[in-house]
Automatic annotation (TrEMBL):
Annotated source species: Talaromyces proteolyticus
The protein, known as: Uncharacterized protein
InterPro entries tied to this protein: DUF1349 (IPR009784)
Pfam families: DUF1349 (PF07081)
Length: 200
């Protein structure tokens, strides 16, 4: 079953915004400074970036895909696709994949956070171009793909722990943007073609 974009919810985080209203298939998320989704030992837990998401049982998730772009200017600005697992003890595990700006360049990056985050990045063949990311449930777990212009897919990560759960966890699936730095203008990320599929 595919999800109607009008059925999505918006988590505004630290006061960020979503446009247009009412929501259309092409939309923008505006992330304010000091917004992020990130954890680091021993006690940093940040979860205040804006997210346009759909809620579903984790065991119902099948696939999500979105195309996006932005103009990046400061360290660790990012946007992309996100899956958040809301654990029974109130904690979050999550997977985010998209484009991130670091060391003066843009990269395609994926972070999987079960206990603590594990971040990987790789070069973009065409910096500044639109990027399409897909999250796909497969027999091994959750596969993360970069979808190229010819629809060929490049595997970025395989995360085997994502569905190793009690079976009744809730998850959020959707698009996000983040601007971890405290200075500079808001980050505006543009999205199109958001697809979210779940089992009936």
């Amino acid at each position: 079953m595919s999800i109607n974009i009008q059925d999505m919810k918006f988590f505004e985080g630290n006061g960020s915004t979503l446009n247009p209203d009412p929501l259309e298939s092409n939309f923008s998320i505006c992330a304010k400074p000091s917004s992020d989704i990130w954890d680091s030992a021993p006690d940093t837990h940040r979860f205040n970036a804006p997210i346009l998401y759909r809620t579903m049982p984790l065991d119902a998730f099948q696939r999500a895909q979105v195309t996006f772009s932005s103009e990046f200017s400061s360290e660790f600005e990012q946007c992309g696709l996100l899956l958040v697992i809301r654990r029974q003890d109130g904690s979050h595990s999550w997977v985010k994949s998209g484009v991130e700006f670091t060391h003066g360049s843009t990269y395609v990056g994926t972070v999987g956070k079960d206990r603590w985050p594990d971040w990987s990045i790789g070069p973009l063949s065409t910096p500044g171009a639109k990027v399409t990311i897909e999250l796909l449930r497969d027999p091994l777990g959750l596969a993360v793909y970069l979808v190229k212009e010819d629809e060929e897919k490049a595997l970025l990560r395989e995360l085997t722990w994502v569905f190793d759960a009690h079976g009744n966890e809730e998850c959020w699936v959707g698009a996000y943007a983040a601007k971890p730095g405290a200075a500079g203008p808001d980050l505006v990320a543009h999205f199109q073609g958001l697809i979210i599929e779940q089992r009936n």
